[in-house]
Specification:
Layout: E1 2-5, E2 11-12, E3 15-16, H1 20-24, H2 30-41, H3 50-53, H4 59-71, E4 75-78, E5 81-84
Parallel strand pairs: 1-5
Antiparallel strand pairs: 2-3, 4-5
Helix pairs in contact: 2-4
Length: 91
Amino acid sequence: MKITHTVPRAGTADYTMIPNAIIEDHRPSGSARGLLIYLLCIDEGEEVDLSTMRPDLEDETVEESLIALEHFGYISRDGDTITTFRDGGAA
């Protein structure tokens, strides 16, 4: 899947700034928020493999996390592209 961001990644190659609202929003699971943070750290246009996104999680859990992130407005998926929204789902 290709990653795109609606807001440019905040930070440098050494770090990424994550809005507090993402961390404090307890609607998505901790796994889903962790996956979102991972996605926000990926460079614009970089290709990622769904099965290796979070090797510590089962593929089913990754898919459930993506569904939750989509439901709460943090990402959208169109074919093989995931678009992130830094404030899309913030409560």
